[in-house]
Amino acid sequence: MAWVLDLDGVVWLGDEVIEGSPGAVDRLRVAGEPLLFITNNSSLTVGQYTAKLERMGIAVEQDELVTSAEAAASLLAPGSTALVCAGPGVNEALERRGVHSVRAGAADVVVVGWHGDFDFERLTIAARAVMGGARLVGTNDDPTYPSPDGPLPGCGAILAAVATAAGVRPEVAGKPYDAMVELVRHRVGGDGGVMAGDRPSTDGLLARRLGLRFGLVLSGVTTEADLPVDPAPDVVAPNLASLVERELGSQ
Known about the structure:
5-stranded parallel sheet; 36% helix; Rossmann fold; globular; single chain; 2 domains; 9 helices
């Protein structure tokens, strides 16, 4: 039974590991459960994400990780040109796809992902490219990301700014949209499993689309005060460690 684990709000908050997460991953490995780590945050490269996990005591292979940057890249044709309004994770994914990346000028597509240096200049460059005929693709449309100090504006906020300025509706690649569904399905197959996440609108819907049980953890953007939520989770737990304990029991 595969376990699909979200990162932000499930394994960590910003640069702080959520207590019990490394031990929970260890227990899943000992039980022989296939693991896939996924994230809608496209800001880091795959190597940076695996290094971050390892710093937190979680060893992971690069093929056990799927990001929304990879999902966005899968929507683009090799050989096309993308104007990147995003972080290094998107640049890496586009390079692997054979897509030429630019920071300004004419392009076939504008790819928007979360990046902390987004400003009015980047908004203007991206919006003008879309006005000039480029497709607009967002790595995800999450309005916020969890952090130790509270919610941060997410990629959805940046994407909305570009889409509003350009007057278009963007294509979205990450959870729970088609591109991410296909990437995850390819990795975990169709034998069932558990999707552990903190946001029903992305993790919960992805679980439903993949036929996975949805384990909602309350260590990220969703709190007990937000319950009930839609889609309804199959199980609710304070954190990943508690979720794994409830699902595996005495195994």
